[in-house]
Amino acid sequence: MDDLNAFLEPGALVRHPTQPGWGVGQVQSNIGGKVTVNFREAGKVVINGSHVGLLPVIED
Fewer CB within 10 Å, N- or C-terminus of the chain? Predict the structure, then answer.
């Protein structure tokens, strides 16, 4: 399966589509389909980009 998060770069703000309670997270790294995100309410989480497409957050 394709990497659903290939476009994400460190510093990008995202939400997990099935874990709204985690809040907004900031991408720390995106290497080989593994995205490390530091979420406000869940801490540091490694996401497999072939299974979960993170949702970009646009802040004004």
Answer: C
